Amino acid sequence: MTVSQRFEKLNGSEVSREVLENIIADAKKANETEIVYRLSKILLDNPNSEEFYIELKKYPKALNAPLKKVDCTEVLNDNGTLKKGWSFENGSFFSAKKNTSEVTTDFTEKELKALGVPFIENPTTVDDEVYFLGKPVSSEDIYKMITDKMVSLVKNATGFGYKKKWGDYEYYEKDGFLIPFNFVTKKEYRGVNFLMLKDSDLYSVYDNPYFLTLKQVKERKGTIKKGAKAKSVIYFTLLFKFVDKKKNIDFGTYDKKKMIAFLKKNKISEKQFNLVVRQVPIIKYYNVFNGSDIEGIDFKLDTLKVGKVYKSEESKSHKKNEVAELILKHQPKPSPSLSHGGNRAFYRPSTDSIKMPRLNSFETPNDYYRTLFHELSHSTGHPSRLKRDFTGKFGSKSYAKEELIAEFGAVFLSAQAGIIWHSDKNHAEYLKNWLSVLKFAEDDKRFLMRAASQAQKSTDLILNLNKDNEPAFYKDLIKLVKSKPKKKPEPKQMQLALAGQKLTSSVEKFTPEIPKIKEEAQPAETFLAAPIVFDTPQETESFIKQEEPTVTEKKPKPVQPQLKQNSGSSLADKLLERQNKVYEYYNISDEYISAFLGKIEKKEKESVVITLTGGQGSGKTRKTFRFMNALAKNYRVGHGSLEEHPDSTLYWDKVYEYIDDDSFSNISNPVIESVEDLDTLIKNNDVIVIDSFAKMQELEKGFEIDKDLRKKYDGKLFLVIFQQTADGKMRGGTKSQYDADIVLFTEKFNDYTKSYIYPDKNRYQKTPLHELRYNIYSGELQKIEEEKEE
């Protein structure tokens, strides 16, 4: 058996470290460089493991492909790591080009287009008003950015989160939009960019759906509001690369014409282009601003009707959604059969059929369509369509991926129909499946992106796109809007039209096909849609929640007590003053830090002080930078770094590790050499971090929290770090430490991943303090119950 055969046989097997070491040794003798590198990486990444379960990634080119092998000693060090100047990309070794930060993507051009990622040709020279290119970064950085965003969306996609936003009403409280658009091209952002432009969750509704680059805003004489945050849009381009080691040539360009000219100069025919030139997809991003954050531009929002949600007081009406019906009508044939009855929703691959409860079994009509879109997305995986894997069992990676495809597909389709998507499923199996999705996403950084790619393919198939990528239902959608009477219009939820397109003169009236079903009226019920797609008798059942009819009694509003004005300083006088007063609280973007610290008031008089105390190596610095990053999303943050010089490499290592791109511009870190320097820092910022109090006392003897910070300045938020000695004493004394509004301590463990912060005092926290522990390593709240079990 050859070394290559032994390597391929490893896939799906459990082997010992010794077995892998033997294969590596034989691979070195046989000059199988790829095998040496890939197996060595497994051993080096897991130095304490003796047993391994191997899953080999399949690259487009097999190991036995008739290619010239790269010499092992030329590419790898003795321990199997890459030598300087070499990279391993898509199953092959390449000499790294000098002066470039590019890292190639392992997605093909076809896969990137399926992800909804637009292609931009020759981005280094393009002079098109549509694009404002961001600074190139590595593909891995962009993948992480996309994955982090999608993970946050998935985390918020479970439970009954929508009820917190919309109360008892199905529709939105005000007019809004569901689909993000490029303002210049008027084209929709699709796939991964649809998700990247969502605010914090999949429920997001835009007041203005248009996005522009900074360049586009300036060209249209607009201005960006102070404090506005840009969002990232992903695109890809092609890098043309020619390498000839014998002639020591390594040339790359994004401009195809330049590459052709280069080949001619080196006496290579243009006909040989595809044989000698590698075309490498490179993923990048640029920044855009939402129209709501832009002043001075007329967006003409009244002309945009696609994906529009209208304010409505309707919540229990069981009228069909006409746009959703149009989508169903225009899906390509043959489509899966649809039948109604029972209390479960599922797709059965063997019969290519969807079974749904009847419309009036759902709490609202749009709950019906959301569930139907989920099952319809499953049906696109049928062998006659996109041919996806339906064999996975519950809890497996393939099962989780298929469920994610169906949910993302339901999101995309719901947006087209003007339906605010939410998940109303909260039964245990559903939530368990989402937890496995997050686990797989953590282990495989491409997992969520590939699921989004498949979901976009699924959506495109159902929408039956034409050559211009327009859904087939658009032609009837225009007729639908035109046919509405002017004096007595239908509910605004149905008034959808194409963006920027004139209505036709046709007055054809759309009448949805409603099947005649002879049966007794059914009571209104809440249906929890089952995610199961397997063709087995053991399909997971969902249950109908019977609700008793409720009678709402109209109660008179309580009469406010008439307060008598006295001397002007009584409680009664002050209560009168406070009745119309608006109180402001700090908006902390990190959900865990926000929950841990509580609802902190932004005072008009005096300031709020937080103290954090811990010994050396307890994680104070990690927490401090996380705190700054979270607050810098919305406020100006000043860092008085007295422990570490703000220009040192140690300081900047922490900056690169913890500070996001959109927080950089809001953080300042001048050198603090006097109280005057600190005073300037405080006056120029909203949030001030002082590290540390002991060093501050060295600059100003007698410096105290209460008199020199809290009572001296108005409307500020301070975080002051206290150092703790080995015997548990505070450097600088404990008086100032306990003068703070919030007093925090660190609990240090030998295993630093277990170290946490706990509150000793917090005036703004309603949760019992003994229940609050912030894990410094993970940046999340720690469950007390788990610790007890451990």
UniProtKB/TrEMBL annotation:
At the highest ranks, the source species' classification is: Bacteria, Pseudomonadati, Bacteroidota, Flavobacteriia, Flavobacteriales
The protein here is known as: Antirestriction protein ArdC
- Where is the signal peptide, in residue numbers? none
Return the InterPro entries for the record: ArdC_N (IPR013610), MPTase-PolyVal (IPR041459), P-loop_NTPase (IPR027417)
Q: Where is the composition biased (Basic and acidic residues)?
A: 546-556
User: Organism source for this protein?
Assistant: Tenacibaculum caenipelagi
- Give residue ranges for domain N-terminal: 141-289
Under the heading Gene3D superfamilies, the entry gives: P-loop containing nucleotide triphosphate hydrolases
What transmembrane ranges does the database entry give? Answer: none
Q: Where is this region: Disordered?
A: 546-568
Which GO molecular function annotations are given, in alphabetical order? single-stranded DNA binding
List, for all copies, the residue spans of the domain called Polyvalent protein metallopeptidase. Answer: 337-454
